[in-house]
């Protein structure tokens, strides 16, 4: 049994003022059990063309294709890098909620998780990118493996504010268009998306060769519904309100929530998506270590 | 069904039922606003449970409201009342007397059970319906003198009395019973402020009610008389009670029928509303081997018919006659029994004081012919005056001295004969010496003889009520009053002792027939002749029956024939001679009731015997067992018949409206004439049920909350 790591406790992290401190705290705890990445070198095997996007290496522009189509295309090769990981962080209004005062909001928890992953990836010479999305893509940082690239990711995460509806579909559309093949896509969201076809889109990504991991972030209060008294529930993404007595709707709520989670888990398994339910009151290493271990096994 | 409240002022408590609504309106908790990410789940969960929750909230609201309303209503102590009873129902607890009619008419069998069985069930039901705060007494109206009983809370005693009540053959006077019930209601201590109620369970036959009497009343709280509330439960449920009954059975000796001949009259009543035709009426004499006499009657509705039979008994002595009808709803009155003593043959010694070889001139010729006729119950023995000295007087019941000059030495024997119960008849004539006769027979003569008067006259005054002359009424009277007399013996006023009774007198007031009792015997003085010397009466048609009846009366035979039946429940006195003791009475059912169980009152009779007075409660023929000289035997001569009161046979029903009016109208009375609904009773208390409902609602509210 591993020794307790108080620095990874969300309540402790919540008391740390900046994301950088949180990342450092998290990664120092994580590194003790992490192996080094087995992926080195670059592949030279051509894989496909991809339309040029800002951030792509201009040295890989295929000038012949430009001559044919009058558009810039970048040649892509198999295992071009060790890993290209796109961190998709949901910054919708609902992510800014926490069920108890000493707890991290879901967005803060997601930011800490995403930053820690970025730091770990870069440290292994893998490329990490960030996609912040709410109602639309708020911020997009292409994957880079350089240590200097970590700073803008942390800044973007630090500056992220929860607002607007959840529309992960916009981020996924962006990814389909811009992400190279066989990259890793890590989605950190509460998945309260109006788009019922979200998982289908994620499955579509998976079929395109991407390794999709879903970190489903939920506050314990969302899972347990600890409300008893008459409450005026307000939507965090629009102006709707509904009055209900907590103890009267609790049973129905929990049943719906349980059914939804079971459905998500089943559909993710069917689409070969790596699904992890993350309670925001649990230590981050409980999420990161199993994820990294799975990554290590799949890379081997 | 209507509702009344014992404490209507507490109905203000019903306002408490609005508390849940007021709390909902004014103390509703404001919901705490909360921005929640899984808002959609809350919306969907609420949508799924909304209908159920609304229903639950409504049920909770109803349960709480009803709990408070039920408690408030229970405190006001509501009662459910039957329709129509509201006006006559006392509010609050009522002291109640349940009066059960146990008269003979309640033995009517209707629908496989008697009205009494039905009535007992109704009475017990009325007892069960009483509230816990109602004191009660039960009273049987069974022909006895009703005894007022104060209501109490001893329900067990009342229930026991009703459950063990048995029908009787007696007549019930429901008016007297109601008066006793009302008196009992006024006797209850601490019950002055309670309502007063009488529940009468009866068959509603009109004969049991005397609506000309005063209705029941009792002293009110302020001393003024008040009427109790009366509820009459008709156990016949409005049904008609058709009934045929033998209401009267009489028998009169009828010489025309022959020796021991009787004219038997049976009265049959049809109490039904429809004509009854071809009704078989049977007359049977006990112990008579001959077939019974049968007749068929046609009875009008509500009317009665008299049927006369001629019946000659085979032998003298005690006899039982029974007239019977086919069994119907009320069997007690389908037959009636009469006990009578058929006179034995009267042995008469005729002493001829002036015999003559010419029959028409013989003093005794007409008398002997009259007494010895074919249908006569008298067997005459004719002797002359000289033979009287050797005659055995004890072998005769009656001695007739016809124009006898002197009885000689037999005067004392004659006096002893009469004193012991024998009869003596004296007629006058030219042989009679008033002074000598006065000397010899002075103690026996009703009046001393004086002298012979010659005057044409007739009988001007007749005592038709006397048994010896009872047959000379109407046209038959002419037979006596038409007789002419030329001479007759005048008499002197009687001395001390029992005054004589003049049965017939001449126009001048001189007695023609004078009667006197001497000891156990009787003496009759006839102041003219029994031949044609002084009168033509022997030639008249009235002479023969008159002489036969005189002989019968002097021997006591006429007296014995009169034994009116005893009405059940009425006292019957039985005379037992010296040396006799009552052992038992054997009823019509054959069961012997020992004398010690009869509770008979005993009195010493003048002859040294005893007179026992007792009451029988079963109709029919009763035999008497006597003990004499250590031996027990049935004394046929003491047998008697008991009959039910003929009024009980009249099952025609009383109009409920008339009874209601007599009881004070609908304000104080309810007559359940149709019998369709169960009697109202004092109303069904609802508060216990309401409290149970409140508890149930409270438990339901708790279950809804959990």
Walkthrough of the structure:
The complex is a heterodimer of chains A (300) and B (706). Chain A has 300 residues and is an alpha/beta fold. Chain A is 40% helix and 21% strand. By secondary structure, chain B is of the alpha+beta class. In chain B, helix 6 links the parallel strand 19 (346-352) and strand 20 (378-384). The interface between A and B is medium-sized, with 33 and 21 residues.
Helices, strands, pairings?
The complex is a heterodimer of chains A (300) and B (706).
Chain A: H1 10-15, H2 19-31, E1 46-51, H3 63-69, E2 73-77, E3 84-90, H4 106-123, E4 127-133, E5 137-144, H5 150-159, H6 168-178, E6 184-189, H7 198-207, E7 211-218, H8 220-224, E8 230-235, E9 241-245, H9 246-270, E10 274-279, H10 285-299
Parallel strand pairs in A: 3-4, 3-6, 6-7, 7-10
Antiparallel strand pairs in A: 1-2, 4-5, 8-9
Helix pairs in contact in A: 2-4, 4-5, 6-7
Chain B: E1 2-5, H1 19-26, E2 32-36, H2 39-75, E3 78-81, E4 94-101, E5 109-110, E6 113-114, H3 115-129, E7 136-141, H4 155-163, H5 174-185, E8 195-202, E9 218-219, E10 225-226, E11 229-234, E12 244-253, E13 261-270, E14 276-285, E15 293-299, E16 304-312, E17 317-324, E18 335-342, E19 346-352, H6 365-371, E20 378-384, E21 398-402, H7 411-419, E22 423-427, H8 434-441, E23 449-462, H9 477-481, E24 484-491, E25 501-506, E26 511-518, E27 521-526, H10 543-555, H11 557-560, E28 566-567, E29 571-576, E30 580-586, E31 592-594, E32 601-604, E33 610-615, E34 620-628, E35 631-634, E36 640-643, H12 646-649, H13 656-662, E37 669-672, E38 684-685, H14 687-705
